């Protein structure tokens, strides 16, 4: 009987170390005490504000329809990816809301500039007309950008952080591809739907062209720049003094 008890107990003691669950390490994120977060946030805000101004102009390359902010805006998402990966969702959300607030402030500033009485000579009247035509539609563009960027960038950052919680420091390229594709699709559909009438896009064919070109270009550029984005994120991880090791 003693030998049977020892044999029955043996599998439990020998299997315990091998089958014990290893706790998953928490994803690494940095605090925002260093100067890097502020620099990234400032760059994102400037890019979004300039994109809003550029988006008031419709642009055509043959049959391709887009707007004047097409070459800038994807970089705001790239910066959002960097902030999400380094600082986490909470700080990415803070960057999004701060950028929105600054965009609203810029739009209100344009309104005040246009409303101020200008010179009445021919040159002054021409300048006033140019300001109205250039900056006048921006409030509608800002509204489109606010709603689109809020939804798209929030989903983008959330996917980045959720995947990082599962993958740790591995498979960064997968996080960048997955988050960018979903976030940019939501952003593009919302923005184009609201901004198209202001820009001068009419008809379903022209609108579909605008949406498709915008989405393909934005996602394509971000995918093309994934090696660069990966290097940038790696640099911040090595130089950000508060990034957990």
From TrEMBL:
GO CC term, one of those recorded: plasma membrane
Record membrane topology: Multi-pass membrane protein
Coiled coil: none
Transmembrane parts of this sequence: 36-55, 61-83, 95-120, 140-161, 182-207, 219-236
Assigned keywords, A-Z: Cell membrane, Membrane, Transmembrane, Transmembrane helix, Transport
Keyword Signal: no
UniProt GO MF annotations: transmembrane transporter activity
Predominant location category: membrane
Family of the protein in this entry: Belongs to the vitamin uptake transporter (VUT/ECF) (TC 2.A.88) family. Q precursor transporter subfamily.
Protein name per the record: Probable queuosine precursor transporter
Source organism phylogeny: Bacteria, Bacillati, Actinomycetota, Actinomycetes, Micrococcales
